[in-house]
Amino acid sequence: MKISLSWLKDFITLTETDPQAIAQTVTERIAEVxxxxxxxxxxxxxxxxxxxxxAKHPNADKLTxxxxxxxxxxxxxxxxxxxxxxxxxxxxxxxxxxxxxxxxEMATLEKAKVRGEESEGMICSAEELDLAARFPxxxxxxxxxxxxxxxxxxxxxxxxxxxxxxxxxxDNHAITHRADxxxxxxxxxxxxxxxxxxxxxxxxxxxLAFPQTPFPFSITAEQKKLVPRYxxxxxxxxxxxxxxxxxxxxxxxxxxxxxxxxxxxxxxxMMETGMPLHSFDAADIKxxxxxxxxxxxxxxxxxxxxxxELSKGALVMEDAEGIFDLLGIMGGLRGSxxxxxxxxxxxxxVVDPVNTRxxxxxxxxxxxxxxxxxxxxxxxxxxxxxLRAAQxxxxxxxxxxxxxxxxxxxxxxxEAKPITxxxxxVENVLGxxxxxxxxxxxxxxxxxxxxxxxxxxxxxxxxxxxxxxxGEHDLMExxxxxxxxxxxxxxMPAAVLTPPPRDHRLHALRDALKExxxxxxxxxxxxGGALLxxxxxxxxxxxxxxxxxxxxxxxxxxxxxxxLLEHAQRNILAAGTLLRTFTFSRVFxxxxxxxxxxxxxxxxxxxxxxxxxxEGKGNADxxxxxxxxxxxELSLALSAPGFKAEWKRDDAxxxxxxxxxxxxxxxDGETVGRLFEVHPRIRKNFDLPHRxxxxxxxLARLLSLKGKTxxxxxxxxxxxxxxxxxxxxxxxxxxxxxxxxxxxxxPLLEKVEVVDLFSGKGLEERQFNLTLRFxxxxxxxxxxxxxxxxxxxxxxxxxxxxxxxxx
Length: 807
Hints:
Elements: E1 2-4, H1 5-8, E2 12-14, H2 19-29, E3 33-38, E4 46-56, E5 64-70, E6 73-79, E7 89-93, E8 98-100, E9 106-108, E10 112-114, E11 117-119, E12 122-123, H3 157-160, E13 166-170, H4 184-193, E14 197-199, E15 219-221, E16 229-236, H5 245-253, H6 261-273, E17 278-281, E18 289-293, E19 299-301, E20 307-309, E21 315-319, E22 322-326, E23 330-331, E24 343-350, H7 353-363, H8 368-373, H9 380-396, E25 401-402, E26 407-409, E27 419-422, H10 423-430, H11 436-445, E28 449-453, E29 456-460, H12 472-483, H13 504-515, E30 519-520, E31 526-527, H14 529-534, E32 543-544, E33 555-556, H15 561-571, E34 578-593, E35 598-613, H16 626-639, E36 646-649, E37 657-667, E38 670-678, H17 680-685, E39 692-698, H18 699-704, E40 721-730, H19 735-743, E41 749-758, E42 767-776, H20 785-806
Parallel strand pairs: 15-18, 30-34
Antiparallel strand pairs: 1-13, 2-14, 3-13, 4-5, 4-7, 5-6, 7-12, 8-9, 10-11, 16-24, 16-25, 16-26, 17-24, 18-21, 19-20, 21-22, 22-23, 27-29, 28-29, 31-33, 32-33, 34-35, 35-39, 36-37, 37-38, 38-39, 40-42, 41-42
Helix pairs in contact: 4-11, 5-6, 6-9, 11-12, 13-16
């Protein structure tokens, strides 16, 4: 969006004249300014010159020597222009001027010799001064032709071409909700409110005398909601007329190319009032006109000459001969104004912004009108735009006259409801006190009606702001930006920030598992019924997602094991010999409240650990059995936060557990989880080739227990004496019971631990060798060999007795 400061001066008197300062204030209070384009920026030190003499360059066939009269006397110049003539007025750049050399890179002119001849400046082409839009016929080899004569010779070219303007390039994304700002009238109102200007002439409806002649054909809409407001009028003209220079300059400054006067007027009015318009040649319209949605496959040849296939639902206008206009986006070639046009149908239509946006996306064809329309043009702009355009037709085309009464439908005067603005709320939100008088002035400058009632204001939005002002929060934003966010003193938040409670035992447990070589995974809590069935679980117990992304994410998981198994299946080739993974997550189970006939969910935190043997070592070596390995590592991990693991036989394993290899995990007598070998059927479902063991711990139950504080012991001051003993045992015999008996066999026995397990060659079925290590030590002296052997003999006697008793 481009806004011309010179154009704004039709309505306002600027109190700030520096374009950069204006841009800064606009960015802070209205919309972001991407660039300030100062018109004629390359015209400094460039004047109107007159060619006095011409001569051939003695050393170059394509160059000419010229004497040029300027404001600084006669200058000798070498020029390559092909259209030079004696007496011609040209654009002359003095030494020191900045030009775009051959229309490309910037260069500063210096006094120089060209092929041996002195040159004291430059006779410029349009490209070299960024004036190609102003002089489109000029090329690099043809210089700017300002006509013959002596008038204005020596005058600065910037003044001669009336290039004393600055254009603000405003980011459209900053005003997507403000259709009223896509106009000079809307921006003028904002400038006044922001303190940049004062009103010179507030916008008002032009007063025109219409004849009583009815409109020559009917115009109807298939759905009025697609065209909620419509205005039209018929004009008769003796010819197209000529676009005046001032209008061309303003259109060029804001990015438009002059085409012909009727089209230029509609583009000019859109930039001035924010209302897109269109002018038709009424002679090309056959019969009555209907506005409707396009059908799939229909086509139109638009103004640019392209035949376009219309998207289904695009808003079009048709007469007896078919579609002639893509309403809200671009007019059709049939019906466009041309040299022979003598009767113009001028129309102003407010169209549905959603339909316009959908059509732009579907057809991939965006225009300036569509950009404004999709923001939601205020209905009040329709009549204003039409009357302003009709006024310009009558002023700029001698002999033009209104040929019909205006045609209109829709209700543009929708009643605006007052909104209560609490000043205390404004202070609370903005962080600064805004007096009622200041808030009132800010809002009234923007066109709002304000009634003060104590510490509140009753604010009624103007007709052009009904689309974006919905409540008190919108009014607070208006007050805040006009008062100026930079005027609000920054204050640090005074709220008390209390970090959420943390149970550091959970971190200790996580760190211990990682030290054991386990990898933590973070799967989604969303699963599909297929995965739960694959893991042997019932999807009927899961909480159903109402609006799932897909079947695979339609349920909340009832346990963390299925995700670990799925992860193992995907990573089996990259895991080496033993896959060790774990995860923490909240799990959910569906519940039913029969009394109120409604469903709910209960949830708790869960830890799952999976050890999967990928090479089959655990089949022959007890030390590699994933069940025993997981039991050991989990026991050690639980001891880190102070929990002592106790294991009991599980008499009711779940369907996904091996029926003979399952244990209950207890802490302080409270059952908190299970350790089990994954059922062979479930293991095969996930392509795990050998044994896999898993543990599932209810963290809510576990962390509800106090546990014990782990206190590091000092290192022993005296050496120990150790002995290893291997005994043969049956798998049915509980090693834990044996260890409990041995620990009390001698006061010198510091500890007894399992150091090796063996099963296989030389042993009967279900037999295994258990190697125990006995450590003897005292705290006050070094044990003698005799003392250690005597204590060990007493312990081995207990070991022998226990083994005989068990057998």
